Each structure stands twice: as structure tokens, then as C-alpha cells.
Structure prediction request, 359 residues.
Amino acid sequence: MNNWDMRLPGAEMWGPYLEQSPVPPAAFAENPWEALRSFLPESLPTALHTAASWYAAVLTFLVLGAVIALLLGGHADGTLLDGLKEADGYSLVPHDYLYIWSAFEEGRGYQTIYFFIKDGLVAGISMELMQDMGDFYAAANNTSTFPVDENGDPDYSNRQDLPQEPVDATRQVYIAWNQLVTNENLSAEERYAYRRDVFTNLPDMDWQEFGALGGIDSSGTIFALLDWLSQQEHYSSGDIYFIQRGYAARGIDGAYAEDYCYLLSRALFSDPVAYAKALARSTADDEAVQTLIMGGTAYGADYYPADCETAVSALDAAINANALTAEETGWAKLLRYYLANPNDGYYADYPKTPAELEN
Prediction:
């Protein structure tokens, strides 16, 4: 192996490639890009796209050759880093990870070469003249870039995870709902998980903040979610419970509250007995919330007298069959009372608990 080979780390690994190269290393030092192009039988983009398996060794050599050329060209202060896959889509080259070589040249500033690796092969090469922007890759940050040891292996021993901003209930609903309405490639498991995230976070979200996440049309964003919730073909007992509790979430007022009452009625008519059971799941500390839910449910159901009659019949059947617990029976009777006695949305004088109904 040549003397200059021994001065470079990892020489025993890439040395055999240099011995077989038809282009001497000195050519890389004098004009690295022309030396690289001399290996390619066609244009660079086409070659990278159509490279066969035998070409992998040549491409690997190109990576090493470019680094060696920079070293031989007087750039001994350069840095080779291992980089994680870009998450922001800055590069259009599909890749699993990348190598980054950066060095300073007097009069030109920092220069950076990116080697994008896909399935173990070089999928793309790009070069950037940083000029006055400085060198973002002078040293590893141990979050997205990492040092490479003398054997060419990345060193993750000092890896640090970036602090993750907690995702609150409002943002979780927004993210999950957007996936459900825009992503047609979701698996059944993913759809289930996103749908669960929407429903379980309804009680803790802020509807005004949710609207703001949609941009300038905040009202349109809120109504769109309410429409989506109302159009679901089926509600589980868990869905019904979270829909009920969501009526007490922050930011529901005015026209939004009226639309939410419609949602409550849809959940009620889907399964009146499950709806009564969900009301009974609340504790004594939630009486104000239960009263709010009851009034909103009755307000929304008033517009659909035929559906109300069907719901009352279902509640009667469950009550008469002793199919409910004592707690559930009390709430089923109170719910029945509201549905059987519509009052144009005014329920201030109605009993607010099962105990008040009995008295």
C-alpha cells in the first residue's frame, strides 16, 4: 500500500479499491469532479438511477475517492460525519441515511459534499458551497449528525435526543383527524388508532385552539370536525361516552354548541341504552356536566320526534327488563323524561338528577 494510504484512517478497508482504480489518486487531488465523472459511462443522474449490483463497489470508491481528494488537496481540517435521514424533505433523493464531508478552502469558504445512501448504495451526491453561511457540519451535534471513527463506523455513544414538545389533546385531535380525512393509504390498524385519538381527546381539547390550527378559516375547521363526527356510521359505547364529555370541553359555544347538540342526538339515536349507561359512568362531582349533557342532548333530539319515540321505546324495554344497574336505571329514566317531554330547548326547570326525578 502506498505511503499516503497509511496516513488516512481506515486505509486497510478502502486500500484495495485504490489499487484497482484506473484513475490515480493524484487525479482526484487535481480535479476531483472530472475524475469522478470519468468513472461514469453516462450522465450522473442516469447512472445513479440505473446502477447495477456490480456498480456498487465503484460507487463506494467514489465516496472514498472524493474524501481522499479533499484531504490530498490540502483540506486536512475537513470533517466526515454520519447523518440521520432528513425529516424535512430538504433533499429530493430517497435515502436511509447520509454521509457529510465538509472542509474549508481559503478564498471560497466552507464546502460540503453529501452522499445519500439507500439500501447500502450511494443513491445521490450533491455539493454545496456554504460561503458566508458558515459551516453547519464542522462538528457532530450528536442529535442528527455523528462522528465517524477511524474504521468508518458512526459513533453514537454521545447521542442526545431532541426535547419533544408535549402534544396536547387539541393537537392530537387535529393530527389524527387530518390523517383520517386526507391519507387514503392508512392500514386498518392505523385508522383505528387515529379514530381512537380523536374520540378520547374530545373532553380535554380546546375548540377555539383547534380552529386556529386550521389557519384563516377557523370556523370552517371546527364545523368540518363536527360534521365528520356526526357522519360516523357507528359509535361504540366508548365513543358515546367521550362524545358526551366533549360537550363540556373548552370553546364550545354559539353555533358550535348547536352543532354539537346535533352530534349528541346522533350518538343517542345510535344506541339509547348505551347512551344512558354512559351518563351513569359520571361521578357525583360531575353533576353539572351531566346536567349540561342532558340539556344538550334533549335540545338536539327535539328536532327529530320520530327518532325520539324510538329511543324512548328502547329505554323502556331496557328498564322493564331489569337489564340495567340501579345507577343506570336512574339515568335511563331521567333521559327518557327529557325525550318524552320536549320543551323547545328550555330545560332549566327540569330535574337535573335521577334523585330529583324520583322526588
Q: What stands out?
A: DSSP finds 17 helices and five strands in the chain. The longest helix spans residues 55-72.
